[in-house]
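[09:14] KT: can someone run the structure on this one? pasting the chain below
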Amino acid sequence: MFVCAVCQYALEDDLRVPAAAISHVSRDMLHLNLPYWDEREGICRDCLDRFTHARSRVSLYLPTPGGTSLPKFKILPTPLRLGASPRYTGRGVTIAFLDSGFYPHPDITQPVNRILHYHNVLTRRADPAELATPDDSSWHGLMTSVVAAGNGFLSKGLYRGIASSAKLVLVKVGTTRRIYHDDIRRGLDWVYRHRHRFGIRIVNISCGGDYEASYLTDPLSQAAERLVKAGVVVVAASGNAGHQREHPVLPPASAPSVIAVGGFDDKNTLDPNEHDVYHSSYGVTVDGLQKPEIIAPSIWIAAPILPGTPTAQQAALYEQLSRAPDGELRAILARHTGIDAELDAAAHLEPYQLRLLVEGKMRNEKVISGHYKHVDGTSFAAPIVSSIVAQMLEVNPRLTPQQVKRILIRTARRLPNIEADRQGWGVVNARLAVAAALNGGDILPSGHDFHLNGL
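[09:31] RB: done, structure tokens below
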């Protein structure tokens, strides 16, 4: 047995790749991205494959000088940063999303529309015209659904979710101003009544109730528990109050059978030694349960910009300016007056000054491209876990919600130097979770089996 210096897993000796067997390009890449790595210790085959795949994938879109390192300032795609298997994409699995509102973004409607149904519990209607009309309330649910199940259509596949083939049911339970405790309950009740009609196996809840309550008496928690008993995996964000004196995990995440997801900060790298805590809610519930169970990336997450908004216009302009030759900058600004007042006022500046201004705006507004920006919060950690669950159910549809939760807990990896109550059982492990699902649910694979599964 040896312990891989990168992933920290104890593995069989035959999974160790000695330094002599690593190409000079791969060796340089590892040193650039993992400065602590001692090549004399070698690396496991899975970690080497992960970095090699990440480099080849990202370099198609985000080339770097010299071609050896992964980009250090661009946002890395979620499947790469979690090492998720590209083989499984949630095919045949339906995820229901409860959120403030939604929008039929091309990443979930092109080339095939994967939205099975939209329902608004506030009006008790299913109105396609309402779904297609962007407003402030549309953005949050748009982002959570695409983070989980987007196929990266507007990024040529780069910023896709882990469950990029999953089908979606969208349930509006509030507005950008407020989501009420009882409206979330009504959304869960609607999912319960229609779970067979749409084949719903997973519910993602990136919102929380108004107050702490025991699951024994709280209708929202009981609605979540009823869904789990009916065979539906319920995943909920733990909340973002970890930096406050009071940081409770509220219903429905506080319910016993719900998978409560906290967050961590991976610093937008593939280096596990860079992982740090995020201010997600945590603690013991009123029923004496420790939450959250697991954590997932909750910052530096690529998410879509809502089309038809001023932010979308600005992002498109920033990207066009960043790609244009110096001689075209002023002409582009002249054709797009009124989109950004500061750029309008700066149109007379020299090209290098304009570029500095545009770069600063993209950084301050968290804009990645004309279609995406990066976001943070456990609202996005939860759909990442939901997308991994979709992979698990794709490879083993017989898994029960209890088995899914057990696998996620037993394959998670604790972050060192961070209190256990803040991270539960640790960082979700996409590949090991899917490998365990392939091996029958309760049977965890050895490192040797894990590699041979070809994930």
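[09:33] KT: thanks! Residues 63-73, 445-453 have pLDDT under 50 and may be disordered.
[09:34] RB: yep, looked fine to me
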